[in-house]
Specification:
This protein is α/β, with parallel strands linked by helices. It has 12 helices and 8 strands. It has 2 domains: about 170 residues, Rossmann fold, CATH 3.40.50; about 130 residues, Rossmann fold (3-Layer(aba) Sandwich), CATH 3.40.50. α5 links the parallel β3 and β4. α1 crosses α2 and α6 crosses α8.
Length: about 325
């Protein structure tokens, strides 16, 4: 049936896949970091303090002090192409596009900063995507990460007259393909070292202890990932939690304290992996590869190895192809 005269042109229907990571400032400079931190720390999923109490602290103290310090940390890891997190996430999308084929449109976005979820969702809809799989690249579910992405996606959809159908990638902390990808990468990384680690430590991003007490499954997901990874590798995998912020009690053991205790108790050689991160970022490249190394060596450790994330390695692309392919079942032919 032909379209009526003057009917607007419509793109052919497509299926879309949107990869989403946490976010990054546009530049390693205080002004850009301040914009990023304002958005990030204003999310009620991230800071669960009533805005009337929190916003004066955020605007009056934190945003006047922290951006300069954080900008210094970002400058230590910034690349010629830009923020490592943005560069890697973009590369993941590009490699997945080639791996999964042209029958699906793959794009990427950041929960905080650029490119925004709103800009990419609207662009995908304009390109004809009437079905979109949202893929938060957080293996372990947490209200402050996965739920925040979903909040933003549905906020954007609430302003769209013609909404695409939406699916969301579930947490994949115990998915066999995820564990297999970690195992393969870590075995390659360990084999390339010039020493044998006495201990393998899995450092996950920390969360306030209160989140566990309120029923957030994040802590359990992290512990299960480490247990399954240890079983796959056939060795012990210790667990710690990094990136504490503020005075509240956070999940323990803290990574810095754990490394200090390990060094003092006789662990001389250690390797640290960060399986809660899908791509290397300031928390892995600066906090672990630089600062955690300094802590361990200063307390008597002799050799320290930081094991990079899955990033856009072959193991990651194959793994994402499998788990995302399953979630796209019925929307595209299975490969």
């Amino acid at each position: 049936m032909p379209l009526p005269d003057k009917h607007p042109s419509l793109p052919s229907p497509r299926t879309g896949l949107l990869l989403i990571n946490l976010g990054t400032p546009d530049a390693p400079e205080p002004k850009a970091v301040k914009r990023y931190l304002k958005q990030f720390l204003s999310d009620p999923r991230v800071v669960e303090i009533p805005p009337l109490l929190w916003q004066p602290i955020l605007r009056g103290i934190i945003l006047n002090v922290r951006p300069k310090k954080s900008a210094h940390a970002y400058r230590q890891i910034w690349t010629a192409e830009g923020s490592p997190l943005a560069v890697i996430t973009r590369t993941q999308a590009e490699r997945l596009q080639r791996h999964m084929g042209d029958d699906i449109l793959i794009d990427w976005a950041m929960r905080y900063g650029n490119p925004s979820i709103e800009s990419r969702l609207r662009a995908m809809a304009e390109a004809g995507c009437d079905r979109i799989l949202i893929a938060p690249l957080y293996p372990q579910y947490c209200g402050a990460t996965t739920a925040s992405v979903q909040d933003e996606v549905y906020r954007v959809l609430s302003h769209m007259r013609w909404q695409p159908a939406i699916r969301t990638l579930p947490p994949y902390h115990d998915d066999a393909d995820y564990i297999a990808a970690l195992k393969s990468l870590i075995e390659r990384q360990l084999a390339a070292l010039d020493f044998t680690p006495d201990l393998l430590l899995a450092s996950f991003h920390g969360m306030p202890q209160r989140t566990l007490e309120l029923g957030d499954p994040y802590h359990c997901h992290c512990r299960k990932t480490a247990r399954l990874l240890g079983e796959a590798l056939g060795r012990e995998v210790a667990v710690s939690f990094q990136s504490r912020f503020g005075r509240a009690k956070w999940l323990e053991p803290a990574t810095d304290a754990a490394l200090t205790e390990m060094a003092k108790s006789g662990v001389r050689h250690i390797a640290v992996t960060t399986p809660g991160f899908s791509a290397d970022c300031i928390e892995t490249l600066e906090e672990i590869a630089l600062r955690a190394r300094e802590i361990f060596l200063s307390q008597g450790g002799q050799k320290f190895a930081f094991l990079p994330c899955l990033n856009a390695e072959d193991e990651a692309i194959v793994m994402y192809g499998k788990i995302l392919g399953r979630e796209l079942s019925g929307w595209r032919p299975l490969r």
